[in-house]
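As a warm-up, study this chain.
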Amino acid sequence: MTGPAEMIAWLDRRIASAMTWLDDHGKGSKKPRPDHEIETKEYDIARFEEIKAAYVNALAKREQAA
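Now compare it with the structure written out below.
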């Protein structure tokens, strides 16, 4: 099983990658991508952040139970 630090780092990299994509291809860029692609990337960021928060909370609960 993937260790907690590695999993959190992976999620952070996915979030950073998606944010970089938005910076490069989002609505404020010189040649923005279609709205549906931008919305999909924004959705992905929100879900990755939600997953990370739930994962961190689960780790905290597991540590308290130990």
